[in-house]
Amino acid sequence: MKKRIDIQKTEPAAYKPMMALEQYLHSTQVTPTQMELIKIRASQINGCAFCLNMHTKDALAKGETSQRIFLLNAWREAEELYTAEEQVILAITEEVTLISQHGLSEETYKKAEILFNEAYIAQIIMAVITINAWNRIAISTHKPI
User: Which of 13, 42, 47, 122 measures 20 to 30 Å from 99, CA to CA?
Assistant: First the structure.
């Protein structure tokens, strides 16, 4: 696949707020494990090879198991490997990533309200939105792995 523009070099003023958003996510309640699960799952759905390559390596470096990464796209069938919190986070990730299908369902949102406060839910949603933006940048520009 032929590489396209490098937005970071071509439009650094546009790239800078994306990096600021990424930095903000490091200050949230979303744990590093939860963050990597969000990033990997959204990247699987979007088919972003660059992001999958990066975030699976990051997850392994942060102590995530290969088994949980391998089974992430089938987490509902392997639910015993994921905590209740992770399952709700993964459902949010899928529903927000696939927003055109039906959006964040009332059922999933109610489950999130039981487990997380409003700030935490907002942070999870922002994490999903951010990786979806990064996926779109990487895919649109043919960012090489």
Answer: 13
